Amino acid sequence: MLVMGYMSGTSLDGVDVALIETDGERIDAFGPSAMIAFSATERAVLERATHEALAWDGQGEEPRSFALAADVIEGAHVRAGFDVIARAGRRPDLIGFHGQTLLHRPERKLSVQIGDPQVLADALGISVVAQMRQDDLMAGGQGAPLVPAYHAALADRIGLDGPVAFLNLGGVANLTWIGADGSLVAFDTGPGNGLIDQVVQAHGAGRYDDGGRIAAAGTVNRDVLTDLLSHAHFRGEGPKSLDRYDFPLEWAEACSLEDAAATLTAFTAEAVALSLRTLPQAPKVWVVCGGGSHNPTLMQALRDRLGDCRTADEVGLRSDFVEAEAMAFLAARSLRGLPLTFPGTTGVARPLTGGTIWRPEPAALEVV
């Protein structure tokens, strides 16, 4: 099938959309991709909903800002979809839709993604698979990370022999370890770019540390770094997941922007390095994707701690669109009833499929 996948991450920069040809087990070809940026007004609506979600925390009636933010997400996804369909010159057979995460509390079986799949299905005239975390959460899993099955397919496509690790540096960082026998281990390692973005934005210095230049000009505060690494997330083993707001930033108010960025960049790299304690074997190579792969300061910190780290672009993949592609791949798997999550990736008791399909009206909602 030709499947279109979407990702709108916690960085709130825009919507990534990508096409792949897949049967949910292998990747036959890569199609067009695009990133549709949010306007400043749209981003402000999303930021308000994100902050109100933290205060709401799943208790009581949802804030009204959620509906306004959902309108933004739906509109941007429809625009992005039409853009890529026009480039492809043909209509996809299926869509994988993640939605915009506002809150992730797996210990309470709660993960909130906004955006109505029916709106996309009706606007684009294509069936949409969404809500791919919920079955895993209800079965006692973390509901994240979702992408390991796709990482394994990518490793197979480009001929990487295990053990190999894929590291996604989005707002939160997550890794997938793929053994020589195809076994999977995955979890959120800690912060990705999200905390760095927050301090840069708080200082009015842009939306992110472009090229890692701000961090490169600073000095790591070792006391703060030690305190950050004492967080409960880094204790114990097994699948675990995070919300980008799980780590405090009050300490940054007493630091220069440069020192705060340097400390948080080191925090991201050290958190990934801690994962070596729980992996079955050290990876031969790390493939790094997501926005953080474009930060030379962060990439060098990772190489200093991990060894052979290559960006996805360097191995012939699309660093910025791996997660959007993954949603397409998972939609195809969901349609075929194949597992999306596994004991080694989310802690669920057994391999589990998931997702619900929305067909263009007037067809009714049905579970995959």
Number of strands: 14
Mean pLDDT: 93
What is the approximate shape?
globular
The protein's oligomeric status is single chain
Low-confidence stretches: none
For the sheet with most strands, the description reads: 7 strands, mixed
Whole-angstrom Rg: 19 Å
Strand content: 15-25%
User: What is the level-2 CATH architecture name of the largest domain?
Assistant: 2-Layer Sandwich
Distance between the termini: 16 Å
What structural class do you assign from the helix and strand content? alpha/beta
Q: Order of SSEs, N→C?
A: EEEHHEEEHEHHEEEHHHHEHEHHEE
The tally of structural domains comes to: 2
What is the CATH class designation of the largest domain? Alpha Beta
Strand order of the largest sheet: 3-2-1-4-7-13-14
Helix content: 25-40%
Q: What name does CATH use for the topology of the largest domain?
A: Nucleotidyltransferase, domain 5
Separate helix tally: 12
Find the CATH superfamily of the largest domain: ATPase, nucleotide binding domain
Key terms for this structure?
single chain, 368 residues, alpha/beta, Nucleotidyltransferase, domain 5, 2 domains, 7-stranded mixed sheet, 5-stranded mixed sheet, 12 helices, 14 strands, globular
Which helices and strands appear, and what pairs or packs with what?
Layout: E1 2-7, E2 14-22, E3 27-37, H1 40-56, H2 65-88, E4 94-96, E5 100-105, E6 110-114, H3 117-124, E7 128-130, H4 134-138, H5 148-158, E8 164-169, E9 172-178, E10 184-191, H6 194-202, H7 213-216, H8 222-228, H9 257-274, E11 285-289, H10 296-306, E12 309-311, H11 322-336, H12 343-346, E13 356-358, E14 366-367
Parallel strand pairs: 1-4, 4-7, 8-11, 11-12
Antiparallel strand pairs: 1-2, 2-3, 5-6, 7-13, 8-9, 9-10, 13-14
Helix pairs in contact: 1-2, 2-3, 6-9, 8-9, 9-10
